[in-house]
Sequence to fold (405 residues):
Amino acid sequence: MVELGQALFHDKILSGNKDVACSTCHNAGDALTDGKSVAFGTGAVGVGKNRVLATGAMMARNAPALFDTGSTAYGGSTQSLFWDNRVSFQPLDTPDPELTVTTASTEYRAVVAQLEGSLAAEALFPVLDPTEMRGAAGTNEIADAPDNVSAWKALMARLVGTSNGTVGGIPGYRTLFSAAYPGVAFDDLNFGHATRAIAEFVGQSFTATDTPYDDFVNGNQAALTASQQNGLALFMGKANCVACHSGSSFSDFQPHAAGVPQLGPGRLEAHEDRGVALVTSSTADNYKFRTPSLRNVALTGPYMHDGCYTTLEGAVRHMIDPRAAIAHYNAKQLEPEFAATLDTDPARIAARTAAIDPIFATPPALTDTEVSDVVSFLGALTDPSSVTRAQAAKPTSVPSGLPVD
Ligand code: HEC
Ligand code: HEC
Fold:
């Protein structure tokens, strides 16, 4: 199962025009992100930090690193994923009136039946997004599929073929799917079987639990420096970061508005990203984004939903006083291509400021030393082995024969 997921995660065969894999944007060499403020979709060229736009488009948001996403606190459960919590997982037949799945087609239900948590559900979606992986209408058969179920079916036809594996498909994938799902006929495999394997691979390979912080919590007082210990005390106390960055992933996974400056193309509206409000259609959710996990955070910049901070200290200073930070934001830290997209509209900036979560109402007064202590503490959330393991999990070739980035 993990081997199948490993191949799929790194194989450009999952993108309509065969030019982008999950690993293109979630690149092991860039701490499972791409080092960009916002990600570049299909049509762009190169991988991670070295990716250039070419004929591709900027996506609305920063690519999150995938460390820790398989833990039960995170994507291994029903926890919502994406910056705006728009994907979560409900087992079939959960009596939830808002759940369209219970009224969905048999084929859709068969896909959902394979999923074991949000992480597997999430992986159903990058392949459907025209700018991310699918490609524009008219460029390939996945892009031209009339609905989601047909697009997933077309991907399975690429992988294992049709007519029970006798027409088309890729022999290497037939072998991997048969080994992962013994006894399941090729025609009974659906894209849920594929994303379940991706989730198994991501969950098992991209853990980040062997950190100095975990060592400290397990009783090794020497695991953290004095500065880190002071940072930990501030994080949990005076600076009140723990109000939102709580639990083993350092996230409550809840939406909060943090007054973050906006750059990039915007989501559904130009130069604007109203976050969770786009999902719930409630203005009360304007500018809310899910609190990100902080495991490995020292490695995963640029920071925030749009990557507007290129340093960890910048992100921390923002969180200490969002109101002051959005008023004094310095775009010089950005690469020119992102700086050019910064939203400077006073009315929208005022709206972002007005929406800031009341938790930030009274900013803690931290000295420069205390700020640097908090930053050092966040460095203690790095698992040094995790990046090596992510790199080791990159195969040298994939069954499609397409190049691995
Ligand atoms: C073109 C770049 C790109 C590609 C390709 C891509 N992603 Fe992502 N990924 C992103 C961006 C950007 C987001 C954030 C989107 C949002 O929150 O709206 C994201 C979010 C995610 C998340 C959610 C993480 C979280 O903390 O909520 C997971 C999991 C994920 N991607 C896995 C995958 C998998 C699996 C694939 C391949 C099937 C893939 N991605 C392909 C850019 C990409
Ligand atoms: C009210 C909830 C809340 C509090 C309190 C809070 N944060 Fe955050 N934090 C968030 C949210 C939400 C985001 C993402 C905002 C966005 O992208 O629009 C975030 C983003 C971050 C990031 C960027 C992570 C990344 O991967 O992009 C860091 C670092 C961070 N916070 C650290 C802190 C520290 C340190 C404190 C305490 C000084 C703190 N936060 C207090 C909710 C909170």
